[in-house]
Write a structure and sequence with these properties.
globular, GMP Synthetase, Chain A, domain 3, alpha+beta, about 30% helix, about 120 residues, 3 strands
């Protein structure tokens, strides 16, 4: 499996990392938190998104709480969704807890939508 992936990456024409990043962002905005009706990007759960010209995507994300019932499975859900983006060759999602998520990470638009303003 690793050999197949290496062959794919080595034989692939370089991609425009910024264009691919934009496509990955669209995909992230299609993934909703299971408890709050907001996508994970606008909710502020994505702390870092790196995309390179080989199509490798690295994501640091958090959850609203370490006690979140999907803490064990949600990073895999995100990883699988991002893999659906055509030029993506590999995805690594890291679940991080520092800094802890807080409502301050929400945009004013989302706060208004959720009745927090």
């Amino acid at each position: 499996m690793l050999k197949d992936w290496l062959n794919k990456v080595q034989n692939q024409t370089p991609v425009d990392a910024e264009t691919l990043k934009a496509k990955v962002l669209v995909k992230l905005k299609e993934i909703y938190d299971p408890e709050i009706p907001v996508n994970i990007y606008d909710l502020g759960l994505i702390y870092r998104l790196d995309v390179d010209t080989a199509g490798i995507v690295e994501i640091d994300m958090t959850l609203t709480s370490p006690a979140c019932p999907v803490a064990q499975t949600f990073p895999g859900t995100v990883e699988n969704a991002v893999r659906e983006v055509g030029e993506v060759t590999a995805v690594h999602v890291e679940l991080v807890w520092d800094p802890p998520w807080c409502q301050d990470l929400l945009s004013d638009e989302i706060k208004l939508e959720l009745g927090l303003l």
